[in-house]
Amino acid sequence: MKTVRLYLRSMKMLMKCQLEYPFSFFLQTLAQLVMEGGEMMAVILIIDRFDRVNQWEAGDLFFFFGIMSVTFYLTECFGRGITGNFPYLIRTGQLDTILLRPRGVLTQVLCSAVDPRRITCIAVGTVSLIIGCNLARVQWTGLKVLAMAEAVLLGAVLILALFVIEAIFCIYSVKSVELVNALSYGGRSACEYPIDIYPRPLRILFTAIAPFALVLHVPAAYILGKPLYAWPEWTAFVCPLAGAVFFGLIYLAFQKAMRFYRSTGS
Amino acid sequence: MRSYLSAFRLRRKMELQYRGAMLGGIICQVVFGLILIALYRALYAGKPQTLPLQHVVTYVWLQQAFFRMLLASDPDLLDKIRSGSIAYDLCRPLNLYGFYYARIMAQKITGSLMRAVPMLLFASLLPEGWGISLPASLPALLLSLLALMLGLLCVSALENITMAFTMRTLDPRGIQAMLNLLMMTLSGNILPLTLFPDSWQKVITLLPYAQLLDAPIRLYTGDVPVGEAWRILLIQAVWIAVLIALGVWLWNRHQKRIVLQGG
Amino acid sequence: MSYIHVDHLQKTFIIRKKRETGRLLREKETVFALRDLSFVIEKGELVGYIGPNGAGKSTTVKILSGILTPDSGNVSVDGRIPWESRREHVRNIGVVFGQRMQLWWDVPILDSYGLLKEIYRIPDADYRQRLKELTEALQLENLLRTPLRQLSLGQRMRAELCGSLLHRPGLLFLDEPTIGLDAVSKLALRDFLRWENREHGTTILLTTHDMEDIAALCSRVMVLGHGQKLYDGDLPALLEKYDTSRTVTVRFEDPETMPALPEEASLSREGDLVKVVYAPGQIPTPEILEKLQQAGTIREMTIQPQNIDVLIAAMYREMDL
Q1: Could you tell me if C118 and C190 lie in one domain?
Q2: Phi, psi dihedrals of residue A71, rounded to the nearest 5°
Q3: Contact assessment for residue B175 and residue B169, using Cβ atoms and an 8 Å cutoff
Q4: Cβ pair A102:C115 closer than 8 A
Q5: Residues C285 and C232 in one domain
Q6: Lowest mean pLDDT, pick from A193-197, B157-161, C203-207
Q7: Could you report the predicted ipTM of this complex, rounded to two decimals?
Q8: A208 and chain B in contact, CB less than 8 A
Q9: Which chains sit next to C, with 3 or more Cβ pairs under 8 A?
Q10: Which helix (H) or strand (E) holds C173?
Q11: Are C23 and C214 in contact (CB under 8 A)?
Q12: Does the CB of B129 have a partner CB in chain A at under 8 Å?
């Protein structure tokens, strides 16, 4: 509970910091709109030109794009400390300052940044979701709402874990940090579209290794009423747990990396 | 002239130091390329288009290979401006516009060539339908290289203008981000410009953003035949002239202001 | 049992050399950051910790504050092993780096303090009382609502100190706290540190290159070089060993006066001033004074010990650092 309070308090303060430069903040928020708007425009143009992919129609495609966009940018907004700041903290030695305080390392890193500029990206994603629901005539039920909430929440956990890998790379001073981007940003780009349109190696990469398909696509397909691989209904609630499992594994690796960091110094 | 060349060389040396980072970057870019191609293959399987799939695949690889040229990012320089240590550069007996032009060009060329060559090699080894195809003809290849050079001059000039604005606002992130993103969408990186609706293409290909990669790629694949290449080169030349003139004017104005403030 | 116990502490770092051309693997080199370091500090002591750059000072501080694990040796601070119970341990320490800020740049410092209260879970009443006390002692009352970035360097340092002491640490590490400060800020800072040490019995370990800080604050000084302890004791005794020369400046009634002195002393004239440089070990000071008085009527005279930085440089030289 105290951790939540600490997080909220940090967020409040960091928001204040951002608003110290209102003009820059405004421009950057606008820039985010241009970015995510561009991405969504690509989806619109693709649908305009190709109509559909396999069994997925326009509404479905908007829904898949929307759920990924909302999940990814909610994470980037509220988890900015981990998704954006972490390697920087390690390289500049600010991780030492964090170690000097009586709180968990990940908690403090999470509390170190917020990115309210992403609000426009989240808005674009939401618009896409609404368009998708309308076109695909989604009938909302309590269970579907639950599946959606679970997918977004565990999707966020999965994305955070992917960025923690980047921090681990940094601690071992691996130079090829961009490699992780293939999983995080690559996963976002690939999984804006349903996983089953891709050839097997990509399907394996984003199902078994970075399980975006399990966390987001299985519940999304269930909500759209076109179950992925014709899997039974309950999988829509169980598969997203892969995100939590993934986070757990990465957390263990992170603990090990911290022990390494503390034995080698910076 | 020599000092501009040495600015260029220094920058190249700095880029070369990050070999490990480069390898990671190449693999990441390859994965992105494969994802996009897989997507377009699935789309084409449902509804084939008049534009051959192989052209789209080639377009994607060339975009990914030269991706670095698109990014407007010289964090050193931006830090310099923000922290005020640009004052050192102002003290040097140089034309600042030329100095930074050389720097930006160097970063774009070295940052991307080192990545582009291995990536294109890899892409040429992939089977038909996944890999890059050969240029339409030898003249097409030569013309596309020329267009790439002109495109580079054009985009560096554009970036130099952002730099001039940076000196004014002191917080470059907004303008920087905006330029980067316009670049990504309007240069054909997110979706090949050749897949945009035809009426849009007529306008977008005239903008400076399309000059860097889209124009040379169209020449390479033969979407624009050799006989019509002069139109592309003319557009590029006009942009270069306009953007450099505007850039020089802006820098001169800002430089004076900074000198005054420094007193 | 003493407050801080350091026993045969050892720490090595592996440095990877730059790859030589033609070599596939990079060579590695093991460097001793600390070798066999032992010392004891009692509660309430104010200890200066000096040594040239790279001597192992910050490695020691990092180990004592629990963010670095040593290769071998025992350390206990207040009965705890720092790196084994990091969270409990850091609750009781405060750290100030002269060149790194822990407060948030763009918000009023009061907001930063509010967040630190949350991080250290300081009870409300305790926080209010401590904040009042510290802001008075550091004269921060009028600055609490100012963002950190608008403060001067001296004000910022005071704000940092306040932030590191809010949770009432029993042990305070200071790393070059006076670096870059003007004379007034330096003196104020030293006054405050003396006050905090006296009032709350806070144990302070001060790492610095500013010998005046040490002279003004520390009853005890430890010298570190090449990862080893080279001296541990009081500062005057240390200086005496290396204090090899004095300068006496004299103005005589008759500007033409030239005293006769032993050969070991060097004599020079600058305008109507006579300057004598001698080693007290060779010629006792009273003998010099006597000779000067015999030479003529003295209008004015000053005796200067050697500059403290020169002494330390001489000491580092002799210890081959």
Answers
A1: yes
A2: -65, -50
A3: yes
A4: no
A5: no
A6: B157-161
A7: 0.91
A8: no
A9: A
A10: strand C171-175
A11: no
A12: no
Q: Read off the pLDDT of residues C214-251 as tens digits, 9 standing for 90 and up.
A: 888 888 999 888 888 888 988 888 777 777 778 888 88
Query: Looking at the complex, does the CB of residue B185 fall below 8 Å from at least one CB of chain A?
Result: yes
pLDDT category of residue A119 using cuts at 50, 70 and 90: very high
Residues C136 and C257 in one domain: no
Question: How many whole angstroms separate alpha carbon C115 and alpha carbon C125?
Answer: 16
d(CA B207, CA B202): 10
Q: Subunits that touch chain B (at least 3 Cβ pairs < 8 angstroms)?
A: A
Closest approach of chain A CAs to the CA of C51, in angstroms?
20
Contacts of A5 in chain C (CB under 8 A): 118
Same domain, C154 and C167: yes
Shortest distance between the Cα of C97 and any Cα of chain A, in A, equals 10
| Residues on chain C touching A259 (C-beta within 8 angstroms) | 69
Per the structure, the count of domains in chain B is 1
pLDDT at B261 over 50: no
The answer to whether residues A39 and A192 touch, using CB atoms and an 8 Å cutoff, is yes
Residue A200 touches chain B, beta carbons under 8 Å: no
Decide if B42 and A197 are in contact by the 8 Å CB cutoff: yes
- Which range has the worst mean pLDDT, B236-250, C1-15, C303-317? C303-317
Q: Is C280 within 8 Å of C246 (Cβ atoms)?
A: yes
For chain A, the domains span 2-264
Structural domain range at position B18: 2-262
- Window 44-73 of B, Cβ < 8 Å to A: 44, 46-47, 49
Read off the tokens for C258.
Answer: 């030239």
What count of other Cβ atoms lies within 10 Å of the Cβ of residue B98? 16
- Length of chain C (residues): 321
Q: Residue B130 has which token pair?
A: 């996944």
In this complex, do A198 and B35 lie within 8 Å of one another by their Cβ atoms? yes
Shared domain for C27 and C146, answered yes or no, is yes
Q: Which pLDDT value is given to residue B263?
A: 34
Note the pLDDT tens digit of each residue in C21-39: 555 556 677 888 898 999 9
Q: A135 CA to chain C: closest CA distance, Å?
A: 46
Query: Using CA atoms, how far apart are residues A40 and B259, in angstroms rounded to an integer?
Result: 45
CA distance C14 to chain A (A): 8
User: B134-147: string of b/e by CB count within 10 Å (b at 16+)?
Assistant: ebbeeebeebbebb
Among A26, A34, A178, the residue with its CB nearest the CB of B182 is A34
> Based on the structure, what is the number of domains in chain C?
2
Tell me the mean pLDDT in the region A181-190.
92
A31/B191 touch (CB, cutoff 8 Å), yes or no: no
Is C118 in the A-facing interface, judged by CB distances under 8 Å? yes
Cβ proximity of A65 and A128 under 8 Å = yes
Count Cβ–Cβ pairs < 8 Å, chain A vs chain C. 68
Q: Which two tokens stand for residue C251?
A: 């103005």
The nearest CA of chain A is from the CA of B14 a distance in Å of 15
For residues B6 and B48, the model is more confident at B48
- E strand or H helix at C277: strand C273-278
Q: Strand pairing partners for C266?
A: C277
Separation of alpha carbons B240 and B151, rounded Å? 8
DSSP-derived 3-state class of residue C77? strand
Do residue C266 and residue C187 come from a single domain? no
DSSP state of C178: T
Edge-to-edge strand ranges of the sheet holding C72-77 = C28-41, C4-16, C72-77
* Beta pairing partners, C28: C16
Range of the domain at C77: 4-240
For C16, the token pair is 């990877």
Which whole number is the average pLDDT over A58-74?
96
Q: Judge contact between A217 and A239, C-beta under 8 A.
A: no
Residues C45 and C112 in one domain: yes
Mean pLDDT to the nearest integer, B122-131: 90
Same domain for C25 and C69, yes or no, is yes
Q: Chain A contact for B38, CB < 8 A?
A: yes
